[in-house]
Amino acid sequence: MSPREEQHRQDERPPGEHEVGGLAFRDEVRGGEREEEPPAPPSRQQRRITWQKATFLPFVLLVALLATWLWFRGARLDSIAHQAVDDGKVWMALRQHIYLTAVSTFFVLIIAIPLGIALTRAKLRKATPVAVGVANLGQAVPALGLLVLLVIWLGVGAKAAIIGMIIYAVLPVLANTIAGLQAIDPTLTEAARGVGMSPMGVLTKVELPLAVPLILAGVRNALVLNVGTATLATFGGGGGLGDLISAGIVTQRMPVLILGSVLTVALALLVDWLASLAELLLRPRGLEGTT
Amino acid sequence: MSFWEYVAGRHTQLLIDTYQHASAVFQCMVLATLIGVLVGVLTYRSEWVGNLATATTATILTIPSLAMIGLLIPIVGLGVAPTVVALTLYGLLPIVRNAVVGLRGVDPTLVDAAKGIGMSRVARLVKVELPLAWPPILTGIRVATQMLMGIAAIAAFASGPGLGNEIFRGIASLGSANALNQVLAGTLGIVILALLFDAAYVLIGRLTIPRGIRA
Asked: A170 and A131 in contact (C-beta within 8 Å)?
């Protein structure tokens, strides 16, 4: 029963008062106006993943990979297809892909999170809307175009691909970090200051722990984005699983194409799954059940 | 050749590519919106099915677009077909998620009131719930469109239409004088299209979001 309904039924009490166990409780009145009902909790609740759910995905992936491998063994490959997959090329593409993703994600995190923290400090707060605007505008730039422009500028190779991936993923993680820090109830930071915490103490003991869920969501986002963008590295000679996909498309060899695609999908889903586990394990206990 | 000379010299081809890019993204967005809102309407009432719909579309989004196109080619072949299927699939996620969240977020007392004045289930949905859930759905459409702009560029690798072809022509002639112009023209074209679409959505929002619930 909501407070309002209760109020209607208890006509003997003046508005804003409830009877609990024969005692009158007055609603808190702020600014002369009765407080609105608290907004309904967001219906999209990211609840804790159960262990059944957590093991389901790797199981499915394992089955899919096994099926693909068995099918690929049986598929008839001609010399062109052999050229694309022999000499450990598949292994190498996979390793390159993981390397590209890991390096770019690392740099994204050490750039975006400190920058997000800096931009929400009092001194730089004026720059925050500008940064968010730039981050939103940057989303309009297609990853492919950005990557190829960097390749033209910096030359063919993994370097251009990694820089492109970093630029592309920094923006969403930055936006997430800023949003996470801005969403913190200002009364909490005020209270922390009130008990005599230094600005550094407020940041490390109050703000960052509260922003952890959103920052972790940003990390997961960056990983998934980077696994996807890393497939485009092939267009700039950066290697990765995109090599197999593009070789499959260009030479019209379906086994190569399917092997590359399935491996990429499996890697992306696996990375997302690992990141979701990290989210689950690193989230501060007090924030469970909240978004 | 400077960039502007290049654009002036190739404006016919560029305009065709731009038009095809915009038209592909627009048509797939219409399709994705129809399917997405329908899925949202069908699933939001059940906790379980609604979450399943959101989780499924989230999984689709996790798949890198080049891999998705790679998996579609053996099924639907090269050209327009894999582009349309991939774009529609990727466009679904933000719309389904926001439709489910938006419809679940409608104040139940309002739906109750609508029931109280004798509105049928369909009338409640069309006249009360969907208009109230429209702002988040429109946000989902905006996010999806922006994403599709970039994915459509990649789809050109599978002989899809649009400005991605300009970028891939540049890749093919990497090292030549025109490579930069081609890639730049393709990329800037997509950025401009994305911004124009975004502006259009702001306008649509102004026109279609009921005055009473405008933020």
From this structure: no
Q: What is the ipTM of this complex?
A: 0.84
Domains of chain A, residue spans: 3-34, 51-285
User: Which positions in chain B touch A144 (Cβ < 8 Å)?
Assistant: 150, 153-154, 164, 167
- CA distance readout (Å), B191 to A58, A149, A167, B162: 37, 14, 16, 13
**Domain covering A51-285, topology:** MetI-like fold (1.10.3720)
The pTM (predicted TM-score) of the whole model is: 0.78
Give the residue among B158, B150, B180, B178 at the shortest CA–CA distance from A168. Answer: B150
Residue A290 reports pLDDT greater than 60: no
Tell me the shortest Cα–Cα distance from B90 to chain A, in angstroms.
13
Average the pLDDT over B136-156 and give the result. 90
Is A172 at the interface with chain B, CB within 8 A?
no
CB contact under 8 A, A268 and B68: no
Range of the domain at B8: 3-213
What residue spans of A75-207 are helical by DSSP H?
79-85, 89-119, 128-138, 143-154, 158-182, 186-194, 199-201
Residues in chain A closer than 8 A to B158 (CB atoms): 249
Which residues, including other chains, have CB under 8 Å from residue A18's CB and lie 6 or more apart? A3, A6, A7, A10, A24, A25, A27
Neighboring chain B residues of A272 at a CB cutoff of 8 Å? 62
Residue A7 has what pLDDT? 44
Q: Residue B73 and residue A257: Cβ atoms within 8 Å?
A: yes
Number of domains comprising chain B: 1
Which of A 90-129 lie inside 8 A of B, CB atoms? none
pLDDT tens string A58-73: 888 888 888 888 887 7
Q: For the domain that residue B148 is a member of, what is the CATH number?
A: 1.10.3720.10
- A36-40, B139-143, B211-215 — which one is most confidently predicted on average? B139-143
Mutate to test the interface with B, among A53, A146, A148 (most CBs of B within 10 A): A148
The per-residue pLDDT of chain A, averaged, comes to: 77
- Chain A segment 37-56 residues within 8 A of B by beta carbon are 40, 42-44
